[in-house]
Amino acid sequence: MKTIFKSFLAFVILIFSLAFTNVNAQTSPKIKNVVLVHGAFADGSGWQGLYKVLTKKGYNVTIVQNPLSSLEDDVQATNLALDKQDGPTILVGHSWGGTVITEAGNHPKVAALVYVAALQPDNGENSVQWLQTAPPAPENGVLPPDEKGIAYYDKAKFHAGFAGDLSKEQADFMYASQGAFHAKGFLTPITKAAWRTKPSYGVVATEDKSIVPSIQHAMYKRSNTKITEIKGSHVVFISQPEKVANVIINASLLK
């Protein structure tokens, strides 16, 4: 009788073990590498919250520091980060960073693209074309380029127009740490749009005053990007890092 009981117990343990292994196989990420690309009027420090969420879940996260001197230079900086990855990678871009990953996403290590309140031009298109497809929000504070061709965000409008759901202290830090964005990047056309050949996921920030949600929807719909709406400002990845992380995680599972 004891022998029968032990055999039955061993059988039950085996069944549970196999079931647990199967669950792990279904939920374990296929892709562990994530490269984050910031946009204009920002720098890589804004990704800190999202970095913490993803690394705690076991992802290998790299943050690109864009020089913001041209589309070509930002793509080169992103490609350098991609070269160092040890396998398939999810490439994430915010705002202007969406234009960057659209070009840099052709790198052979990029398995999928994630656009976070981001621009997503097609072949031959530039960023300004899309920014002009809808009236800007009154809070938008992008200033005309100065005599050196550099565009900045109006300090008086930065909090409401760029980071409305962050504290004033956080918005002030972001303003102080923004890079010098050479506006010619907005006029440079895409030569080969990576979203045409690779899976794409897009976060629409529903309270965005810098790239209004209707523009985000139109771009993502045109490209058959899988859309997730998240209530948040243009920097939704800072105010809602867990929700944005979930979109990246789904991309890593190729769901």
UniProtKB/TrEMBL annotation:
Q: TM spans, by residue? A: none
Q: Which residues form the AB hydrolase-1 domain?
A: 34-246
Question: Pfam families recorded for this chain?
Answer: Abhydrolase_6
Q: Does the keyword Signal apply?
A: yes
- Signal sequence, start to end: 1-25
- Name the keywords, alphabetized: Signal
Cite the Gene3D superfamilies for this sequence: alpha/beta hydrolase
Q: Report the SUPFAM superfamilies cross-referenced here.
A: alpha/beta-Hydrolases (SSF53474)
Stated name of the protein: Pimeloyl-ACP methyl ester carboxylesterase
Organism listed in the record: Flavobacterium phragmitis
